[in-house]
Design a protein that fits this description.
Layout lengths: L22 E2 L10 H14 L9 H20 L8 E4 L2 H16 L17 E5 L8 H10 L2 E5 L12 H4 L4 E7 L11 H11 L2 E5 L11 H4 L3 E5 L10 E5 L1 H4 L12 E4 L4 E3 L13 H17 L1 H19 L5 E4 L11 E6 L4 H10 L2 E2 L1 E3 L4 H7 L4 E5 L6 H17 L5
Parallel strand pairs: 1-13, 3-4, 3-5, 5-6, 6-7
Antiparallel strand pairs: 2-8, 7-8, 9-10, 11-12, 12-15, 14-15
Helix pairs in contact: 1-9, 2-9, 3-4, 10-13, 11-13
Amino acid sequence: MLPDLRDDFPLLARSVRNGKSLAYLDSGATAQRPHAVLNAMDEFDRLHNGAVARGAHLLAEEATEAFEGARGSVARLVNAASPEEIVWTSNATAALNLVANGIGNASAGQGGAASSLFRVGPGDSIVVTQAEHHANLIPWQQLAARTGATLRWIEVDDLGRHRLEQLGSVIDETTKVVAFTHASNVTGVVSDVAAFVARAREVGALTVLDACQSVPHIPVDVQALGVDFAAFSGHKMLGPTGIGALWGRKSLLDVLPPSVFGGGAIMTVTLEETTWHPAPTRFEAGTQPVTQAVGMGAAAEYLMALGMEDVAEHERRIARIIREGVSEIPGVRLLGPVGDAHDVLGIATVAVDGVHTHDVGQVLDDLGVAVRVGHHCAQPLHKRFGVTGSTRASAHVYTTEEDAERFLAGLASVREFFGVPA
């Protein structure tokens, strides 16, 4: 069980609208940062800032050590086989695009015979799901358009769970890539990764996992999951913005063609051609966000010190309070499973009858409760639920029962505030 961690997060001590204390329930979008992360970044900037892997002086050595040390911390958090399986990116969206664009480049003939396993074209299919964040949908739409492949998807049921009975028909011998979320950013439902991986392996397809909502909240072991690639971001796991990571099997990363070109990623350059370093360096052209990487590494260490099992249990307990409370509020519909569902993370997303989601958010904001409103970059899933937008409360390690109760009290007042008939 986690202790009260609010004192670790300086922002949570501030007041918001009309001097009210802050109940921060928007961690699914961006989490707050503990002193451990802020201090690590500050110390690096003040004492160790230098060019990574580009100098022989002391500061360059210290910067490189900090940069690679952070890579090692993130690798340990997700149980990568080695730090070389972690590629720094600017965010998870960039990580997913890195894979999709690399496959597109391989399909255009780059990378030679070694990259032929990535090639897709007419007659092939790429499979996603109806629950995807746009960041794990649009890159595959674009890849299909570039290559002539067909885009298919696995649907979800009325509670937002994947219709696993479709795996056998939608994923077939034409399928080259299966991209799916580990946990929905709308419903919090955790996918049956084993079922997806098993079917993909039967047909020889690559698997790409959007792990943005899972890595910060539950134990994630990429080796045990069996996927080929996984993407996640720093700012959702108590770290800074501007940094994310792609995990991939080293054997695949070493032959995936890069899609961003420049210094640092190259082995040799002539006026006629270029050869690339092995992973991860081949994907890290240009000056890297070193301070942000240090912050993400510190966030990984902070989470590991707490224990990811305890993190998961704490957040599920908070979400359970919210989900059970929502069920007692007239005119409020919970999107996704109701009650104490074992396969749902610390997220509760609702639609309020007769009130626009932005109006719901404004009422809550006036009460000092911060939530996410809109379609959460998941328009197809909202369409499946028959709504254009929703209001999402999402927990993290610092979320308290009082935060949950303040959300419920505010939510219960919304329809009366706008004069919506009971």
